[in-house]
Amino acid sequence: REILKQSIDLVKHLNLRTDEECNLSPLQLRTLSYVQKGECVKPTEIAKEFNITPATVTAQIDKLVKKGWIKRASCKDDRRVVNITLTPKAQNELDGVIDKTLEKYDWIFEVLTKEEEEQLLKLFIKIHQNAHSRKEK
């Protein structure tokens, strides 16, 4: 339980700083990154991926549309279905925003040796895969 508590504390600390630094909340940044990978996604896919409610997704999408990062488009086959895509602004700037945000947190890992960093990455991947497999059951 202590490892979970420490992980949550670290994430909370980083979330606050990310929000202040790049003017996008951590959830908004993750949402943009997810949309970028899928190119065109449905809000329900975002909710499932991040294990959040559709209402939370709608609120995030509204904010990102207002900021000019994403746009909504009706599906050609079924107008009831809404797809989310990146705007040209997001396509041009998102990689830079993500890189800049990640660079700001490089200092966290300065205390680790290269071997420890590689081991930590393997452990995070293992935990992430387990979390996703449990979520799907």
Description of the structure:
The model has no long low-confidence stretch (mean pLDDT 87). Helix 2 (26-38) crosses helix 5 and helix 3 crosses helix 4. With 137 residues, the protein is mainly alpha-helical. Strand 1 (70-74) and strand 2 form a beta hairpin. The protein has one domain: Winged helix-like DNA-binding domain superfamily/Winged helix DNA-binding domain (Arc Repressor Mutant, subunit A), CATH 1.10.10.10. 13% of the residues are buried. Helix content is 69%, strand content 7%. A two-stranded antiparallel sheet has the order 1-2.
Task: Compose a concise summary of this entry.
This protein has six helices and two strands, in the order ααααββαα. The protein has helices at 2-22, 26-38, 43-50, 54-66, 88-104, 114-136, and strands at 70-74, 82-86. Helix 2 crosses helix 5 (88-104) and helix 3 crosses helix 4.
Name the CATH superfamily assignment.
Winged helix-like DNA-binding domain superfamily/Winged helix DNA-binding domain
Whole-number average pLDDT? Answer: 87
| Structural class by sheet pairing and helices | mainly alpha
Q: What is the domain total for the residues?
A: 1
Classified by CATH, the class is Mainly Alpha
Output the strand order for the largest sheet. Answer: 1-2
The tally of beta strands, per DSSP, is 2
The outline comes out as: globular
- How far is the N terminus from the C terminus? 23 Å
Strand content: 5-15%
CATH architecture: Orthogonal Bundle
**pLDDT < 50 stretches:** none
Radius of gyration: 17 Å
The largest β sheet comes out as: 2 strands, antiparallel
